[in-house]
């Protein structure tokens, strides 16, 4: 069954990771849909006031305090920052206060709303119930071959998590159906994932490949020790569904960004 369920409630159409929200009721986990053309990223040249207003309306719809919104400045890197309770709100209304050069965020704290922004790249969302640690990582092809997923798993293990209990979710992003890459990207992927199946990376003609970044990330997380049944995998392709998603590829670079998030909402002040 598709783990990400669409709901168009309270003016903020979103996909929710319902399975986790049912099992762990203190979590809110999801990804915005494109509805209303709402862009949530400050770095794409939109009017900042409008972006902040969009974020505030999402906060209202999810019944989360906007002051909890926390994000980094994504650079297609693999740096991961641990967010403390006192960092809550960084990047919420200004790029200046966001964590610089950061594509991964992890925290033990409640009331820290981890967010990151997408138009095709793969959102990797993490939760380890044994230590109650949450994380989110932005994995385009560079982040994927850089190993940001496995790096997040190792970070959570350093924070006390048992790798056998870590959950991961791969949210809506470009599918293998639509993601065509050249030899350079294919070669980089083969280097970090020599076992990549034809399903992950398929040659379609000399110098052209179809790459399924979601399956590549899934495979890398499992190789890092996450149990296969603990990885939730979406079937939603951002490029195939303009009614739901922005897509950098499909829209030729001129597009907004969805936000993916995870937050622990009800355990005091963390
Ligand atoms: Zn597609």
UniProtKB/TrEMBL annotation:
Short name of one Pfam family: Cu-oxidase_4
Keyword Ribonucleoprotein: no
Cofactor(s) the protein needs: Zn(2+)
Protein name, as recorded: Purine nucleoside phosphorylase
Catalytic activity of the protein: inosine + phosphate = alpha-D-ribose 1-phosphate + hypoxanthine; adenosine + H2O + H(+) = inosine + NH4(+); adenosine + phosphate = alpha-D-ribose 1-phosphate + adenine; S-methyl-5'-thioadenosine + phosphate = 5-(methylsulfanyl)-alpha-D-ribose 1-phosphate + adenine
Biological classification of the source: Bacteria, Bacillati, Bacillota, Bacilli, Bacillales
Family recorded in the similarity comment: Belongs to the purine nucleoside phosphorylase YfiH/LACC1 family.
Known role: Purine nucleoside enzyme that catalyzes the phosphorolysis of adenosine and inosine nucleosides, yielding D-ribose 1-phosphate and the respective free bases, adenine and hypoxanthine. Also catalyzes the phosphorolysis of S-methyl-5'-thioadenosine into adenine and S-methyl-5-thio-alpha-D-ribose 1-phosphate. Also has adenosine deaminase activity.
Keywords: Hydrolase, Metal-binding, Transferase, Zinc
